[in-house]
Queue: 2 jobs
Job 1
Amino acid sequence: AYQQRIKNTGFTTHQCPTLWVNMDMSERGVHQRLQTLAKGHNLPKVEGVSVVNFPSNPGLDMTNPDAVVALERLIQEVGAGLVVIDNLVTISGGVDENSAAMGSVMYPLRHIASSTDATFIVIHLVNKANGEYRGSTAINGALDLLLNVKREGNSPIAKVSAHKVRNMPVPPLTVEFHGVHNLGGRELEHA
């Protein structure tokens, strides 16, 4: 099995099938991100990633028991060990993110993670005023790890810091993103 040690962190990653639940970007945008990832690692393409694009209406509503069952089945069919959901507000079924009712969105995700043994990355945007966590404590309470990814302006450098850690300490780290598109903007020239 493929393993990679993340530089200067002591963490090891393990390759596994990934399910990307796209609720927020165009299909082209997701594929450009995956292309950037592949080129940045000198790979011809990213393999093992299944992208599911949900229309905005009705989308994926985690307050709906049928949607919870459907997501769980999809993860099992793909055999996903990693599930990326972009983004939290789009799966909330209209629940106000500042309401304790966000527990009805978060706890089904914890149930699915437990029943499928998959790791979830759920993207949630920060408060624009201060760049910090926003929303109900029910969101934070359901998480094992809350990471804040922050970059200044258009800088390719982002700082990643843990704001909540349930099981083990996570040191802060810095990541750098580079990708240059050709003149037409559709193909990535290099990353």
Job 2
Amino acid sequence: SSRRRHTRFKCDWSSDVCSSDLFLVISAGVILAAVFYGIPGLFLNARGRVRAAGILSAVPEILDILSMCLSGGMTLDQALPRIVEFSPNVSSDLTRELQLVVRQARVSTAGVAFQQLADRMDEVELRSLAATVQHTERLGTDMKKAIDNLSGSIRSGLRSEAEARANSLSLKLLFPIILDRKSTRLNSSHT
């Protein structure tokens, strides 16, 4: 009877070669899993920050349009669809959010709709807008004046943030400029 010999790879677990290969495979698997698990979250967070920044930069202009509608005699419920008409010129992301606000305001109140917008975006400026709308609805105060004040406040906040970024940029550029000058001096002294 002829017997075939089947050779199987046998690993002697006490050998250093087999355990180090196994360790490398497991380590590579864990690292790859961590990378592929983390990258989508980082990408989505970055996209969300860019989207939120674009929406926030457009909010003062939208509030100005709202103020003009209110000064023209419209109610907030009448002004919201008009704002949506003008918002594509300002920000497409904000337009989509405002369309949702209009639909939610039809079901409940504008204050609740803006509160839900603030909850979705989780930005202080939008929370202030929601609080302002809710306050004016509840107390019946002059919404135009409150919107004008809020618009100015948001503009000054955005301006302050831009100035802070510009000031930090000069510090970030300082070190590359110093290194460039040193390398230029070294190159000129060697020639």
